[in-house]
Amino acid sequence: MKRSEINSAYQRAKNCFEAHGWVLPPTSKWDITDCGLNRFAEVGLVLVNLCEEPEYCEKLMYADRGQVTPLHTHKLKKEDIICRSGSLSFELWTGLPSAEARGQTGQVQRNGEPFTFTNGEPLIIQAGERITLPPGLYHSFWPASSGTIIGEVSTANDDANDNFFADPNIGRFPGIIEDEPALIRLLSE
Question: In the chain, N or C: fewer CB atoms in 10 Å?
Answer without folding.
Answer: C
